[in-house]
Structure formats: C-alpha cells, structure tokens
Amino acid sequence: MIIIVTGVSGSGKTTIGSLLSKRTRLPFFDADDFHPSSNIEKMTQGIPLTDHDRAPWLENLANHILEWEKEGGAILACSALRENYRQTLQVSQNIHWIHLYGEKGILEERLNNRKDHYMNPGLLDSQLATWEEPEYGLHLNVAGTPEELGSSIIKYLKNFDMKSKIGIIGMGVMGKSLALNFISNTIGTSVYNRTVQGKEEKIASTFAEENLDLNLRGYDDLGEFLQSLESPKKILLMIPAGSAIDQQLDQLSGFLEKGDIVIDGGNSFYEDSNRRVSEMQEKGIHYLAMGVSGGEEGALKGPSLMPGGNKEAFEQVEDYLKSIAAKDKNGNACMTYVGPEGSGHFIKMVHNSIEYGEMQAIAEVVHLLRFGLRLNPSEISRIMRNWLNDGLQSYLLEITADILAVKEGEEYLLDLILDAAGQKGTGGWSLITALNHHVPYSPLAEAVTARQLSSQKTKRSELSKLFNHSFRAFGEDKVILMERVKNAYMLCRIINHETGYSLMKEVSDKYSWNLNFSEISRIWTNGCIIRSGLMEELVEVYQETDSLLRHKKFISKVKELKKDLTYIIGLGLSHDFALPVFSASANYLLGRIIENSSANLIQAQRDYFGAHTYQRKNDASGAFYHTDWQKAKEQSNPNSQNKPPSS
Ligand code: NAP
C-alpha cells in the first residue's frame, strides 16, 4: 500500500505522514527531500517552481513509489497540487490519496511558526491558487488534532478490500498478544472471538477499535472474519485445548476450502493433534499443531514457536512465524519446523513438564533457604540474583528473585498467596505419556504430584496440627550450606532436563519423528519459560549426544555436584522439609547409574508368587526361567529353618 498525503505547505503533511507511519509501520518519506538542489535554491529565495522544474522531481518520485511498493509499501508526503502532478505519481493501483485542506489563517500561522525549513511563507498564496481539488481520495480538514486525523485515515483505509494474511480465533490473553505481535510486524491480521450472549459480546471488534491499526481488523461474525482472509486462508486458533478445538473445527469446516491452513497454537494434547492432522488432511485442509511458549509477554514481544504437522503448510506460514518469534543469540528466530503429526504439541508438553520440574525445584530451594537457613525473602532474592550471574542464569530463577523482593505494606506478597498450586494439564499428560512409553519420569512426575498435594490445603492443615509439623532450622554454617544448596539445585536442574529429553527421544523414535534435540534446545533459548544458560549449553551438547549423562562435560559436572544434592536432601528430610523433586532427581540419577540394582529381588518375588519367570545374569540365550521357590528353599538349606544366623 502506498499512501500519499497531499496539501499545501503548512497543512501538516509531515506530521500526519509520520503518525500514519507509526500506525501502519510503513516507512515515511517527504517528497521535499527528493527535490534537486536547484529547486531548493529557488524555493528558499521565494521563487515559485515551474512545471518544468517539477517534472524530473515527480518522475523520480514515481520511480521510488514503484520501488517502495515492491518493498511492502510506504507513506509519502507530497504537495501534489495539480492533477497532472498527481497523475504522474499514479503509477500503481495500490495508491491511496489523503488530501489535507484548511483555512488560510491556520496554514499561515503554522508556516510562520516553522523553523529550519526552506519554504518561504510568502509562497502560500501561490500554492493555494495552484491547488486543483481532486474528486477522489479522502479529504480532511486540518483543524482536527493529528490523532483525530490519523484515526479517520486508518478507518478510511480499512474500507478498502484488503485481505489479511492471517486470522486469529480466540481473543484471550494469548490471542490478543499474538495479534499485536503480528501487526507490529506489518502482517495484516484479522481477529475473531465467539459471542456468548450477555457475557462475551463484540470482543474482537472492540479489541480492533482499541488498537486502531491499519493491519488489524476485528470481526464478531465468523463468516465475515473468514471472508477477510487472503486465500489460502491461514487461521490460528488460540482457544482452550480439548473439545473447544473440535467444536471450532466443526464450525469452520463449512467455510474452509482445500489448501486452507489451520494452526492450533494452544496447548492441545499431542495425540489429539495426531488425529486432527490426519482427519483434516483427508478433507484437504492443512493442519499445523504448534506449541507456543512465553506467556502473555512472550506472545506480545516474541514467543518460542514449535510448529509441527503438515510441512507444506508450514512453508506457507514460515515467514510470518519467523517475524513474530523471539530471536536466539545469533539473531535467528526461536521457531523451527519440529516434525510431522502432533510433534509440535508433544515437545510443548515436555517443555511444560520441565517447567513444572524447574518451578518445584526452585520452590524447594526457597523453602530450604528460608526455613532451614532462616533467610528472609529479600535476602534470598539477592542470593538468587548472584546465582544468575554464577552459572545458573534462567528466566524462572530471575522471576523468582523479582517475586521474593515484592512487599505489600510490611509483608511479603508471597506470604499472602494461598499455597495451593494450579495446573492445566500438560504436566499430567507428560506423566501419562511417560508411563505409556515406559520412560522413567520420577523427577518431573513428582512436580505434578507436589502440585496435587499442595491443592489439598484443608486436609494438609488438619494433618499438620495432628503431627505438630514444623520446619527445623539447620545448625550448620550458612555460607557453606548456601553453596551446597546452589550445587544441589544445579544438579537437580540437569536431571530434570535429562528426564524430559529422554521422553522426547523415546517418543520420537517410536513415531519416527526424527526430532532434532539441538534445534529444539535452540528454539528454547529465548522467548520460552525454560530459557536458561543450561539451555544454551544443550544446543551444543545435543549435537554430540542424545543423553546428558553420556556427555563428558556433564559426567564430570554430575560427579562433582552429586554429593551436595544427596547431602542437602538428607539434611532437608531430617529437618522435616518435603523435597519431592530434589529427592526424586537424586533417586532417578542413582537408578540410572547403578549397575547391580535391587530389581533381581523384584523378579524373584514376582516369580515366587505369580510364576512370572525371570532371566538369568550372564545367560546369552535370554531364556526365561521359573523356580519352585518352596522346593528350592528346602533343597538349598534343609536344616536352616530354626537356626540363628551364623556369626
Ligand atoms: P484465555 O485467556 O482463557 O482465552 C481463551 C480464549 O478462547 C478466549 O478468547 C475464549 O473466548 C475462547 N474460547 C473459550 N472457549 C471456547 C470455545 N469453546 N470455542 C471458541 N472459543 C473459545 O486463554 P489463553 O491463555 O489465551 O490460552 C489460549 C490457548 O493457549 C490455551 O490452549 C492455552 O493453554 C494456550 N497457552 C496459554 C499460555 C498462557 O501463558 N496463557 C501460554 C501458552 C499456551 P471467551 O472470551 O468467549 O471465553
């Protein structure tokens, strides 16, 4: 789109053009800047330009207009007083004319107040005499404020049949922020929200009015919304997971054409997405299951995006997604095509599961420091800020340091918040998925369980009294303990990530998704909630291995930190601290690195009571054996029953 703002000197072309540039994100140009020096010299001396003087200037501008159009559009302030001047500039169908006019007195006053401008105020009369009023375009009296004029222009321009590049359904927290992100990247966006009579009315149209922007259009009617999209339609759903998605797809089905693209940007369960990708494919509709992370702020300023599903569809929206995504340290978008089917939603689910683990681990750290080391929240906040610069950089730790510093009156806000944690599904789904795929998941599973226990506040309060529970402070050196808690947390964090990535590896292999863990780590280095210094390291690590526990650098790190994790767990448990994720991570680690585990006894017990059979060590045949344990016991030691153990 090319917008040309015309009018005599003093009509406010530059002010309005610059304002429009902000509202449309199109670059602004002032035609005066393109005059040859001979013209400027004449105007400075108060000598009116002739048409002969203007001809090369207008031709030059016309060529620029064609260039700007190719680059996505521009706004040009140009007096264009005569019709033949305007016709010289009319080199494209995409030109919109805005004509500013006003009382001579106002124009004179403005010109007299202007400094550092070569236009001689004496030329106003000649300009007014030259002005040939056009019969097209928008005519605006400059008596209004620039804001009023700008709003009128945006409303006028929106009447033209411009199709939006993308449509968003669901104007909740995420949908609104993503819409603003798209338009700030000059991607034409239509938005729609359902109507619930008496409760949810005119949500999308009101949002578009409140955020007046040429690139934003709000619709309360689904049909009109879909009409406003360019073909093939690209529709992003930002609504709750589950039945809402299926209902919305049903409503859309009558309107969609083959080749249209639907993107589910919510936290849908990946198995639902697997099904939807193939169901939609059968109808000729492309379906992308896209994980989005970063919360409200990320969605607005740059989220981490995890699209998966139909690759052909991805290629059609790739540039838009790249534009709105966060950028990694090398300036590349934190967005990648994850893989087929619901893989994008799958990795988002695991991302959230790691997020659960990280949040719970930090919560355990805060409890240990606060009630074990008797530090107040402000002190803990300062300690965490130091940790951020000492090998533990992470978004979640950063926001925790902020939270701990917040007071309401004399009290810490944290102490006023009910200790009952909410959850929406992704943590639990990860756990179910891990169980279904036989992947050990205890550290992250414990984070889910901890939230469940926390939500039983009334029962906990009752039992707390019955058991006289209270934390007991540690009697040891605070400085040494602080360092040990830090090391324990550092290792717990490594194990949490190892747990989540091992689930991704298993499911990727099972579905032949061929997930790229280095690339997944890269798109999680910014924009998302689990971005951290560790994540930056994982980008390199997963180029070399598929398990942190096999990576040389991490093997030595784990060895070094292990004694502090186990020490802090022992100390904490013996002083009545609940440390579910800390403890589970240590058990998980030991369970992974132990060569001779206690499971031989489990197999023996299973065979004893259920004849489930067992395999034998060093038996290359892999055969299954059953023992008659009663008989074997008698045969093994027939006289031992009543004998005391030998010394
Ligand atoms: P939200 O603020 O609760 O908004 C939900 C939106 O969906 C609202 O516009 C709501 O419309 C609409 N909606 C609800 N039920 C619907 C139905 N049956 N049919 C059509 N529209 C319906 O939710 P949100 O935080 O934006 O989250 C949207 C999706 O993104 C969810 O899947 C969520 O899990 C995911 N997500 C959220 C975050 C986050 O930090 N919030 C981060 C990543 C992903 P009404 O106004 O009419 O109710």
Radius of gyration: 34 Å
User: Based on helices, strands and strand pairing, what is the structural class?
Assistant: alpha/beta
Overall form: elongated
What hetero molecules are in the model?
A: NADP nicotinamide-adenine-dinucleotide phosphate
Tally of domains: 4
Q: Which ranges are low-confidence, i.e. pLDDT below 50, for 5 or more consecutive residues?
A: none
Beta-strand residue percentage: 5-15%
Family: Belongs to the 6-phosphogluconate dehydrogenase family. Belongs to the gluconokinase GntK/GntV family.
Protein name: 6-phosphogluconate dehydrogenase, decarboxylating
Catalytic activity: D-gluconate + ATP = 6-phospho-D-gluconate + ADP + H(+); 6-phospho-D-gluconate + NADP(+) = D-ribulose 5-phosphate + CO2 + NADPH
Enzyme class: oxidoreductase
What are the SSEs and their pairings?
Blueprint: E1 2-6, H1 13-24, E2 28-30, H2 37-44, H3 51-70, E3 74-77, H4 83-89, E4 95-101, H5 104-113, H6 124-130, E5 138-141, H7 146-158, E6 166-169, H8 173-184, E7 189-192, H9 203-210, E8 216-219, H10 222-227, E9 234-237, H11 243-253, E10 261-264, H12 270-282, E11 286-293, H13 295-301, E12 304-309, H14 311-324, H15 343-372, H16 377-388, H17 395-404, E13 407-408, E14 411-412, H18 413-416, H19 426-436, H20 442-455, H21 457-466, H22 478-511, H23 517-523, H24 533-544, H25 552-574, H26 580-593, H27 599-610, H28 629-636
Parallel strand pairs: 1-3, 1-4, 2-3, 4-5, 6-7, 6-9, 7-8, 9-10, 10-11
Antiparallel strand pairs: 11-12, 13-14
Helix pairs in contact: 1-7, 8-13, 12-15, 15-19, 15-20, 15-22, 16-17, 19-20, 20-26, 22-25, 22-26, 23-24
The structure holds NADP nicotinamide-adenine-dinucleotide phosphate (NAP).
